[in-house]
Amino acid sequence: MSLQNEINRYELLTPRSRASWEEARLYMPGGDTRTSVFWPPYPLFFTHGEGTQIWDQDGTARTDFINNFTSLPHGHADASVTKAIQEAAGKGAAFGGANESQVRLAKLLCERLPSVDLMRFANSGTEATMNCVRAAYAFTGRRKIAKAEGGYHGTHDAVSISVKMSPDLLGDAAAPYSVASTAGISDAAVRNTVVVPYNDIENSRRIIIENAAELAAVIIEPMLGSAGMIPASLEYLTMLRDVTHQYGILLVFDEVVSLRVAMGGAQERYGVMPDLTALGKVIGGGLPVGGFGGRADIMEQFDPTMGPKVSQAGTFTGNPVTMAAGLAAMEQLTSESLMRTEMLRDALAEGICEVSAEFDVPVQVTGLGPFYAMHFTDHSINNFRDAVNVDQDFKRQVFLGLMNEGILVASHMVGALSTPMTEGDVESHLHALRQVLARRLS
Ligand SMILES: Cc1ncc(COP(=O)(O)O)c(C=O)c1O
User: Fold this and answer.
1) Which of 132, 259, 306, 376 is most open to solvent, judged by the fewest CB atoms within 10 Å of its CB?
2) Domains in the chain, CATH or no CATH each
3) DSSP letter (8 states) at residue 405
4) Over the chain, what is the mean pLDDT?
5) Average of per-residue pLDDT across 403-418
């Protein structure tokens, strides 16, 4: 079935979402309030979720393999998380002071993450990386950062450089341009954010050394998430650790996504310790959250009893409802549950390769832990350029096709398994893919 036929099928299955979207367009630009979850012809409007399932306004249930962009490790409406939210909300949503749940969640994260001595919370992953960058500027007295091409760290200016862009703007692979990812980014951000090619040891080291005197930090995802769950090589992260250490540059790991590739995050899995770590998503149990932490001497810049050198605020920061939800979610993320979802994810990855081979469709499945991405190509996927160099129409066709067959992944074909998933969910995903590939030419 061609892309157009999948679109027609989607429209037939989702008339209520279409009607809601038409109404939404009267009040929100494009009927949308979150660019990342818009997909053409119009996005689904969801009513509720439970466990592995999510329902749209037409009453269709789908198995949710994206779980609000990987922020729900236990799927929807997990009983313990829901109870924690209800109990906390019943005692008051937020206070203009501290609360005990902040301390418990900070303690859990400091104990789990090997490089984190002290923690702070925020309201989004964006705020988390913003505070890491600010802390690095303040600590080093320098004004530039380096980030990877295709790395997504949220929406503040310093990191909104070379995230997603058309291939003709990329420049030389060995020395990528710094490209603003949206209109409205300050010229200073474009000037002060240096871009390195992910997983390219030689050229990244060279670019970092060339800019070393001005670099406050290198911020990196140990697994390039939104570009397609592309793991860094151990050698690449080790090189970043060594070169940043040598030149007095802070190394920031953005573990907003990768936290659950091991109990102690990707830093524990790789055995490479950053100076600062940005967190988000799962640490809020599904509610809006961010967190950042790291070496005591850097984090102490935020200590109000010492100045503070760096100020951090936020009306909803550390609110007891989010903190309670985060604790309930994190306490259930045990090494057993992580291992089980990783085994299921491996079975899914293997199945995706087998099903694609049945239809002579080339595919690469990338990812770590519960995370996976499907790249329909025969070249290997090591960086952003590899991931965008695929047939975009076919990608859309498979995305909508899976949706038509009851499987929800992100439109860039990434997903994450949740702890309530079983072999049956893996089978459903593979069955759906088989159906989509079988009709792709009809
Ligand atoms: C790696 C990474 N960092 C930061 C962010 C930003 O988090 P938030 O959307 O909570 O601002 C995201 C969001 O997807 C992310 O994937």
Assistant:
1) 306
2) 3-73+334-438 (3.90.1150.10), 79-332 (3.40.640.10)
3) T
4) 97
5) 97
Angle at 85 between CA 81 and CA 87, to 5 degrees: 115
Q: How far apart are CA 23 and CA 349, in angstroms?
A: 39
Ligand 1 centroid distance, CA of 35 (Å): 13
- Ligand 1: centre distance to CA 357 (Å): 33
Give pLDDT, residue 1: 56
Question: Residue 284, class by beta-carbon neighbours within 10 Å (0-12 exposed, 13-18 middle, 19+ buried)?
Answer: buried
pLDDT of residue 440: 84
| Amino acid (1-letter code) at residue 273 | M
Distance between Cα 330 and ligand 1 center (Å): 18
What's the pLDDT score for residue 147?
98
At 65-117, the pLDDT tens digits run 999 999 999 999 999 999 999 999 999 999 999 999 999 999 999 999 999 99
Of 123, 147, 153, best ligand 1 pocket probe by most atoms within 8 Å of the beta carbon:
153
Distance 277 CA to ligand 1 centre (A): 13
Cα distances (angstroms) measured from residue 378 to each of 179, 374, 393: 28, 11, 16
Q: How far is the CA of 125 from the centre of ligand 1 (A)?
A: 5
Closest CA to 212 of 182, 177, 168, 245: 245
Nearest atom in ligand 1 to 125's CA: 7
The residues lining ligand 1, judged by C-beta closer than 6 Å to any ligand atom, are: 69, 124-126, 129, 152-154, 221, 225-226, 254, 256-257, 280, 290
Flag whether the pTM goes above 0.85.
yes
Residue 321 to residue 151: CA distance in whole angstroms: 30
DSSP one-letter code for 302: G
pLDDT range class, residue 442, cuts 50, 70, 90:
low
Residue 165, pLDDT above cutoff 90:
no
Instruction: For residue 189, give both structure tokens.
Output: 């951000």
217 touches 251 (CB < 8 A): yes
